[in-house]
Structure formats: structure tokens, C-alpha cells
């Protein structure tokens, strides 16, 4: 925990858009639901759990890994298949 706080403290003063997180931090973070690794998505500025299809926001450089803050990723392929059946 102390290492995480130190990494966040160093990054907070580093400028940038406040959405990205340091690589060292993303290497140790895991999904709170699946306990699998997360990947950082630059396009959405969020951490993504491919294991469960959920993205978690990064606010002011701090990832919010509270399960209720996660959002399900849209499955475009599954959605288009459902639309074609209607």
C-alpha cells in the first residue's frame, strides 16, 4: 500500500492530463472482481479488465477500482448479432 501511495504522489505533481497512470502502478493493479491484470486504455482514460469486460475510471491520475464505479464494455459484435435477429 505504501508503494502505491508513493507512486501516486510522484505522479500527481507530474502534470499531464490527470487521466494516465504510471506504468509501475498499472503493473501491480488487478481487477477487484476477477483479480486478473488490468490494462490501461488511453482512448477512454480507464483501466480495463478483459476478464470480466469492465472498465474502471481514472480520475485525476487515481484509479477508482470500486466495483460500483466499473462500467460494462459494449460488445459491438454481440449487439449487432442481436439487432439482426430482431
Describe the fold and architecture.
By secondary structure, the chain is an alpha+beta fold. The protein has one domain (2-75): N-terminal domain of TfIIb, CATH 2.20.25.10. Helix content is 29%, strand content 20%. Strands 1, 2, 3, 4 and 5 form a 5-stranded antiparallel β-sheet that branches. The longest helix is centred in the N-terminal third of the chain and has 11 residues, at 2-12. The termini are far apart.
Provide tags for this entry.
alpha+beta; N-terminal domain of TfIIb; five-stranded antiparallel β-sheet; 29% helix
Number of domains: 1
What value does the Rg take, in angstroms?
15 Å
- Main structural class: alpha+beta
Shape: globular
Q: What can be said about the biggest beta sheet? A: 5 strands, antiparallel
**pLDDT under 50 segments (min length 5)?**
11-15, 77-82
CATH architectural group? Single Sheet
Amino acid at each position: 500500500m505504501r508503494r502505491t501511495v508513493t507512486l501516486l504522489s510522484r505522479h500527481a505533481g507530474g502534470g499531464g492530463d490527470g487521466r494516465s497512470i504510471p506504468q509501475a502502478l498499472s503493473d501491480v493493479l488487478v481487477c477487484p472482481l476477477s483479480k486478473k491484470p488490468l490494462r490501461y486504455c488511453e482512448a477512454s482514460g480507464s483501466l480495463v479488465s478483459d476478464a470480466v469486460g469492465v472498465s474502471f475510471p481514472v480520475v485525476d491520475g487515481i484509479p477508482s477500482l470500486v466495483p460500483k464505479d466499473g462500467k460494462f464494455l459494449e460488445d459491438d459484435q454481440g449487439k449487432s448479432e442481436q439487432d439482426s435477429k430482431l
